[in-house]
Every structure is written in structure tokens, then in C-alpha cells.
Amino acid sequence: MKAIRRFTVRPVLPDPLRPLSDLARNLRWSWHAETRDLFQSVDPERWASSGGDPIRLLGSMRAERLAELAEDRHFLRRLTAVADDLRDYVTGPRWYQTQTAELPAAIAYFSPEFGITAALPQYSGGLGILAGDHLKAASDLGVPLIGVGLLYRHGYFRQTLSREGWQQEHYPVLDPNELPVVLLEEEDGTPAQVSLALPGGRRLHARIWLAQVGRVPLLMLDSDVEENDLGERGVTDRLYGGGSEHRLLQEMLLGIGGVRAVRTYCRLTGHPAPEVFHTNEGHAGFLGLERIAELCDEGLDFDAALEAVRAGTVFTTHTPVPAGIDRFDRELVARHFGPGAELPRIEVERVLRLGMETYPGGEPNLFNMAVMGLRLAQRANGVSLLHGQVSREMFSGLWPGFDPEEVPITSVTNGVHAPTWVAPEVIRLGARQIGAQRAEDALTVGGSERWDSVTDIPDQDIWELRRSLREQLVTEVRERLRVSWRQRGAGAAELGWIDQVLDPDVLTIGFARRVPSYKRLTLMLRDRDRLMSLLLHPERPVQIVVAGKAHPADDGGKRLVQELVRFADDPRVRHRIVFLPDYGMAMAQKLYPGCDIWLNNPLRPLEACGTSGMKAALNGCLNLSVLDGWWDEWFQPDFGWAIPTADGQGTDTDRRDDLEAAALYDLLEQRITPRFYERGRSGLPDRWIEMVRRTLTHLGPKVLAGRMVREYVERLYTPAAHAHRALDADAARGLAEWKARVRAAWHGVTVDHVETSTTTATAELGSTLTLRVRVALGELGPEDVEVQAVSGRVDAEDRITDATAVPLKPVGGPDMEGRWAYEGPLSLDRTGPYGYTVRILPDHPLLASHAELGLVAVPADDVVEGAGVLLR
Question: Rounded to two decimals, what is the model's pTM?
Fold first, then answer.
């Protein structure tokens, strides 16, 4: 019989065991080994069956066992020690509290998904895992972050396979009462709520659930409340589900409702109000509109409020392709704002202008969430050096007149939270080498360029560790494969072969990620005969573990999954290659440590960062990857291999796949498998072990989320907080008025005359020329602009590359015609073809970049005297 109503019965813990509840509710247990060990000792079998989830474990405990533990003095001593450790962790000073700079009082970090632990399944892939690692690293460093997201009642889908290998999706209902979250309550005990106005007089209400991630609160909005109609209740049903209006409502709730949730949380708890708001991808971009509306209520006009909001906003873009950005029809957005809907105090046209693609190549009727995010943030970044470059080119239309390299989008390369992703065995080896506290600091705070202590670990210890981790993966794979085949309809009698799947002494390759076409799940199948010979090589075989989910609406991705599954089903190779369905955090934590090679073969440059290879590297797994994302930045032959790319303009997609697959096979056959199986005098693969050692020594400190968050604090959060403090109401009004005046007068700004102290087309290295310029500033003055000399090498078309900009100084004016004279030195510090130009830019002490207004004036072709190219 089916129950007509469901509710959760919580156990009553005896008083001595009450700290268990606090430990279970703080998600630090998900990366703190001692806490997990304590819960496991409560009941090892139930711990395993609960999936390592303390809430589920405690909810299933018998009262007799709890009473027994309440009398167990050894257990109670351990409980006290772990509870005291958590208390010290959440209240004591950490890295952030030791800094001398004037750091932000608080930062609000918005993301549509968060991958904290498998026990809170609110993530789909890399964006969510990155957001979870950001929160954990902020907690470890003591950064006063507040996370903001949505609580999806179905989370992301669970994946199984049909008998034919076709992906099937399942959406289990999540009961928040069975998750490690608590309701945020008002002082009278009623649930705290936020609400949004919808067209037609309706309202969208949401409760606020709180997940405690170490020191960091994560606020999650949930629309499944009785006050809502059926349609509104379903707004937070699924991650990345539904049509355009559904997604728009999710993103309005995340951005606008999220700011209101932050204000409510700070009011109820006394947490400092955020000085900086960080938008993790465009989904949360509407947060800027809500903050503008707040300031308008305080008496600022829209333009001044916009400047104040921009000053304290950081925007991170994660996609290198326009198709990865949410875009909405202009009319749909217009219907949800203005009178009779949300933010009625703001003109709808002002809202639309923030997101419209009003640049060459844009679609003027589409509202682009990333474009809005960039227009509402004074500071923006990509997530690797290469991705920053791609982003500057992709969004250069927002800054007309500037070369892509000057577009104000920087980069902070992603990192991963080592305590979450590093196998306990690896951490124990490090602790044995340098001590537990130093090992913990190295993995969380980071800061060192190299982990030189790894060089002292004996080869034998490294090799035994690697084999042990591989053996654990083999066991895990067989268990998961058996479950998968039973789900596909196989009987127990058909599955005896699974006991022979994989071998703990065979070179193991891992490939696991989402399955959009650009990640090329099936590139390895390009030449199946060649792959089969690699898998079945008599002396140097390889084995491959593959996992990944295609988006439910992506039939092309599902066909790729099916193609891989069908190959892995072949009785000739099924002991050497497996596809594991339902890729998630729990699987990943076994997969990364157990593999020897982590394979990554996206179409370059479409991988923004690719953090799975970082997690593998921290466990001593070597990367085999296309030079994309972070690997393009940090690859060295000492600790991995680069798959050559065939990305010339004349190479079609099929040809490119053929060439890059052939390069992949060549690397495996000629360089990788020989090195793994080759034995030195000690009987160990000395050269392989040395690569593992170098991976840990040189890559380890770089790929840490602690390093990433420290960069955000130093390079983005702190400057944003200072800009926020500088832009009080008067300063914001002044800046807005100045920008309006500059924009209105810019048509009168021209470069009228340029000359140098030489008239020849050649000059000697090291010499200095004097550059004289006359400019017209119209209604502006020298205090409103900066006149620059821009010089550098030039290409065959006289385009300046590797440019250096030097400000020129006013030396007289205005003359009778209202022109100003500027002068300055031009140092010739490079040989070869060399050129210069002059430009005028808006200048104000409160601008973060001269490119901020997208205004520039350069000489007309008939202005320059002489060749303009100084060295040939």
C-alpha cells in the first residue's frame, strides 16, 4: 500500500550524544576524516548503507544502540574531542583573520548549484562542484562568505541505462527534512520567507533553508510552500529543468530573492552585511537589479545606484561558448518587470538595456544573462588564463574600440578542495611525512610554490599507495557494474564475468564528466581496432573507466553515451573498459585516486578550466589532455602529456577528430604504456614514479581551491570592497553625472595632430623620442581624460601587438582653437618592426579600468606626420 502522507521521525539523542546532532548538521564532516570516522564507529553497517550520510545514519539508529553509546566512555571521549575541534574550527582565527589589509566584512556568493556532498544532491557538474569547493575553501581560510542558491526538490536527475544502453533519467523527490539543512526561522519561530511579485497580481513565495558548510552559511530558497499556487510551487523543482519562463523565474528567485534572503539572514543572525556580491555565472545576475532597487528606495536615482552596485560586484563567467549562456526573449523579461510585476520602481526599459545584445553580431531582441552580469559588475573574470583570453574576445563587443586583450575581464584559475577530493590514504602518507597539522595546512591554506617534502617519500611507498588505490577502484567498479546490469534487466546467472572486470596491476585510464558534444566522450572510439589492441595488448594492456551524464534534453549526448556503452558491452573487451552510470560526487571520490591516467580531450578552446584533472593530480594521477583550460597553463612534460590539437582553420570537424584520436593512440602506444610497465633496477617503474612525484610536488600547490580563494580575496574581493566603500551616495551621484557628461561630450574629443622628434622611419634601440600631440577635448577638460602613447611591435598590417601604454602630460592649452598640447617620451626598447599610436580615454579616480565606459578616441589617418612606424 502507498502512504497518503510522508513525514520524518527524528531520533531523540541521549544528552551525552547531543553533540552528534551538531556534527551531523555541519557539512564539515564531508571533508573531515575524524568526524566521518566517528560516525562510522556508531554503526559501520548502517553507515555504509546510509551512503556515508550522518543524518540518514542517525535517523535509522535503534534506541538501544544509542543508549549503549551514551555509556561508552571511549566513544564519548572521541565525541568530545571531535566536537571541540569543530568549535575551534568555526570560531577561531584562520588565514583571513591574520591579514593586515582592510578586507571585506562579508561576501555574498551566488550560484545556481552547489556540490558540497552527495548527501545534498544540488549539483549537475563542474559549475556546482566548483561552487561547493569555493565555499569549503572559504570556510577553511576563514573568509566571511554567505552562499546563496536554490533548493531543488528533485535535484539533478539520477541516471540508469536501458538494456540497449540508452540513458534513462529518474527524479527522486528530496525531502528537506531528510537533508542536512534547517529552516531559517523568524524570532517568533515561524519560517522566514521571501517573495517576488509576478504578472497578474500573483506572488512567488520561498522559504529559506540553511546548510552550514563549516564556517560558511549556505542559504537555499525553496518555492514548494503552501502559500504558492501549483505552478509557483514547481519553480524550484529541478536543476536546469523547464522552459524559458520556468528558467527565468528560477533566476529571478535566485538573484532577487537571494538578495532578500541575505538581508533576512543578516537581520536574524547579526552576520555582517556583504560589501561584495559575487555572481558565479550569469544565472544570478538579477541580484544587481534588486540592489539597485534598494538604493533607489534610499534616495539614489537609477544611474547613481547602478554605479554603487557595480563597484561592489564581481562576475565570473564559466563558459567559452555563447550557447552556454541563458538568453531570454525581450518580451518575456519585460512582462516580469515594472508596474504590476517585480521591481516596479525601475523603468522596464532600463532593465532591458542591461541585458540586450546591442553590439555587432548580437541579437537585439534577446536578453543575455552574461551580458547583464558584465554590465552590472565592475570586476569580471574567466576561470583559467586561456579562458580569460577567450572571454575577452567573446565579449569584446561590449567594449568597442578596444583590442580584446584590453577588455576588462581578468582570470582566476579554478582550484579544487583537496580535503574533499584527496584519498585518505594519500593524506595519511603526507601526514606521516610532515605531520598532520602541516599536511592539513598545505592542503587547505596552501601558499607554497612546491611541496618539496614529497621528494623524500620512498619509491616503494608511492608505488604501493598507487596499487592500493587502484585495487579499491577495481572493487568499486565491480560493485557498481553489477548494480547497473541488474537495473538493465540482467539476471544473476549472467553476471559471473563481472568478477574478472579490471585488474589492479593494469594501467588504468579514467574519463568522467558531463557529455556535451565538445567534450568528445567517444573520441577514443575513433579507431576501434586500434583501441581494442591497446586494451588487449599481451604485455602492456590498458583499462578504461568511463562515466558521464548527458543533459536530459540532449539526444545527441545520449547517443554518444549509448555508443560508448555498446562498445563496452562487447564480450571481447568488457573486462577492460566499463561505463558506470550515475556519475556523481561519491563515485568521483573513488575514481580520481584509483586511476593512473586522467584523460581529457575536448575541442580546444571550449573547456573553460576542467577541474577533474586537478582532483586526479592531487592523488598522484597523471594527466593526458588537450592543451585546454588549466592544462594549457600548467602543463609540463615532467608530469603529464599533451594531446596535439589540429585546430587550423582549414581542418573540418571529422578530420580534426581523426588527427587528434591518432595522436592520442600514438601517445598511449609509444610513450605512456612503455613508461608504466618498464621496470628499473629496483623492480619498480622508476620513471613513472618520478612523474607521480613531480605531479604532487609542482602541480599540487597550484590546483588548490585555497590558492584560488586567496586570489579572489586579494585581486577581486578586496578591491571591490574598497570601491564599494568609496562610492557613498554623494560619490555615486558624482560618478554617474560625470559618466553622463563624458558620454554626451565625447563626440567632441579628437586627436588633431601627432608628431615626433624624428622624421626618419628608422631609429636605434635604446633611444628616446619626444612625442607631441594636440587634442581637442570639446566640453571636457584634461582632468576628464588621459592621453596615452601606445607602442609595441607591429605585424605586417601595422597592428600593434604586445602593446605598452604610457600617459602623456599636458604642456599647454587651450590655444585659440581650444586645443590642448600633450607631450611625453617614447622609449624604443625593442628591435624589429615597431610602431606607436596615440589615444584619448576617459579618466576618473573611481574607474576600475580606462575601458570601463567603452569610449576611446584615436587619430584619423590624415593626422599622423611621417611614417608612424619607427623601426623596421
Answer: 0.95
